[in-house]
Amino acid sequence: MVSSSRTFRRLIVPDDIRAHRYRRLPEQGPKVLFFSGGSALNKISRVFKDYTHNSIHLVTPFDSGGSSARLRAEFHIPAVGDLRSRLMALADETVLGQHEVYALFTHRFSKTDSLSLLWQQLQEMVEGVHPLIETIPNPIKSLIQTQLAVTKAKMNEEFDLRGASIGNLIMAGGYLNNGQQLDPIVFLFSRLVKTLGDVKTVLDADFHLGVELEDSQIVLGQHNITGKETDQLTSPIKSIWLNKGLKDIKPINQSIADDRRVAIENADLICYPPGSFYSSLVANLLPTGVGRAICQNPNPKVYLPNLGFDPEQQGLSLTERVKRLVGVVMADVDEPCGASSTLDYLLLDEGYDYGNIDMKVLSDLNVTLVKTPLIRSKKDKYDESLVANALLSFV
């Protein structure tokens, strides 16, 4: 039973003493949970593992663009790209063979080579003779070969391999080879490359995203929402849901697994991190049980918003994003959180212009504004070390 009581202390941000303590013993570091999709958090994650080996990353499996779209259409699987990239970001870089595994998992087939040549290269990987795989030591090598062989055997001969991620092909094979479940193959690869953190999809489900715009238009599919692969939306997003398929409006939902619920409830800190606002962050909060688990956690919750331009945020001030974030979490809760909360702190760089912030709204929501240096040289990029130090100051 999670206690509903909360303990308060004087907050110092950044707390260099606290960060130094964690860096000395990262294997005993705090359980910081990130609701994270996309690649926006990968660089921060690579730095964060120097401070704690116990971070938790719940990533979205709802992407529908790029080579992931072809894999999802072929095998009816959750999107695995974000899962694969976060596993690699958190991998122990001192482990023998990790650099070769990283190179393989992040490699993409050429977009201009002939399909026959690409299929030949895939066969060479299955046989273990391709330059990218032949130097990987066993048992990792044989495990990778097995998963790629499954993918190749089940793949239509007309499948377009141009631009395909090898890591995604490996993860897809693991999914198909393990009763259409991602968790077993994620656990296995996490052990083999010694992932310094816990990475899972928030749901192990083949769902997509749907949104209604302010002008009543309906848009299905993450790739149509982000404004990166297609034209930007013509109207701000009004609401978002999980959808079954990409052809028709079929709202669907599913309860998170017990291990996800326990991870959320027991995290020492919950962070709503940078990333595409709806398709990476809010999407992670939609499954049934996420909001309730957040409300059961008495520990601090921090929102670190995007920098720069995010097409999904059109029409939304930072204050409105805070309100929508809280609203999505509370939509899953039957009653107020009581002594707990959905969001405690809004963490901002002290010199960046985030636009006007309505302090009364923050006060009404019991959200405290914290400003500290988070940017060094690139004005639209957070500095990974400064962010890590700041977040760990809350724990």
From TrEMBL:
InterPro entries: CofD, CofD-like_dom_sf, CofD-rel_GAK. Signal peptide: none annotated. This is GAK system CofD-like protein.
